[in-house]
Amino acid sequence: MVRDFFRLLALSAKMDLASLLRDTSTVLFEIFTDIITSTSAIMGVFLLAWRFDGIGGMCRYEVLFMLAFATVISGLYMIFFGNNNGHISRRIGRGQFEHMLAQPRSLFVQLATDGFYPFSCGSTLIFGVITMVIAVANLGLALSLWWLLAVVGYLLASLAIVVGFMYLAGCLAFYAPVQAEEISSHVFSAFEHIGRFPLSGMPRYLKLPLLTLAPSGLLAWFPTLALLGRPPLYWSPVYPLVFATILWIVTLYYFRKGLRYYAKTGINRYTDFGRR
Question: What is the pTM of this model?
Fold first, then answer.
């Protein structure tokens, strides 16, 4: 399984690079549009923070760091889950899940490698990392190896939470394929839009749901303040990791349950939209 995992990652990367190199103008156009999209996604909140010298007790460059963190998460998501292996409800709801079940590879390996686009989707990640470096330089943080490892850990935890909620919601497509076909996409959009805004100025009764039931605050806001040494609500800095672990235990339980239901009943629906 490990050998297949890395071999399929390399194959996906090779195909992604080949698709870009077919046409230089396409490469430049994709990179340019990704940079424009990433810039526009953070400029609204950052200009607001710049105008009022911060938001909710966070200074300008703390807000910029949070926005950069969210952009890096978006870049990682696009690189590893860009082929509907993240928007899992689409594959289930469209009756395309049999394509994966018929392959001589484990379902885990297919889901983990099918959306690997390091070249065509890498510009968002690079933009996020550059923005994060600018924010850190202006904050004057004393960097250490442990702090950098903590950044990586929070990035992985936030990514796991986003993907975990998309898969948990996507389980509904086993039971209602037409109605729930795009539910994973709506979950991702909710994280994208709400997760980029600092929650520091909000009252406690609004923060709690955004850190538990609909945890958009765990995308970037909580990790940012934890990395700055002041975790929100005085909670433990390891809360995102604990939340991600519990979320994936619950998600795997319901995904397996939905898969068993799918194996018994099937889906009386098929569309070839989005398949190669």
Answer: 0.91
Distance CA 141, CA 68 (A): 16
Q: How many residues does the chain have?
A: 276
3-state secondary structure the chain: CHHHHHHHHHHHHHHHHHHHHCCHHHHHHHHHHHHHHHHHHHHHHHHHHHHCCCECCECHHHHHHHHHHHHHHHHHHHHHECCCCCCHHHHHHCCCHHHHHCCCCCHHHHHHHCECCCCCCHHHHHHHHHHHHHHHHHHCCCCCHHHHHHHHHHHHHHHHHHHHHHHHHHCHHHHCCCCCCCHHHHHHHHHHHHCCCCCCCCCHHHHCHHHCCCCHHHCCHHHHHHHCCCCHHHCCCCHHHHHHHHHHHHHHHHHHHHHHHHHHHCCCCCCCCCCC
pLDDT of the chain along its 276 residues, tens only?
A: 788 889 999 998 998 888 888 877 877 887 788 888 888 888 888 888 888 888 888 999 999 999 999 999 999 999 999 888 889 999 898 888 888 888 888 888 888 888 888 888 888 899 999 999 999 999 988 889 999 999 999 999 999 999 999 999 999 999 998 889 999 999 998 898 888 889 988 899 999 999 999 999 999 999 999 999 999 998 999 999 999 999 999 999 999 999 999 888 877 777 766 554
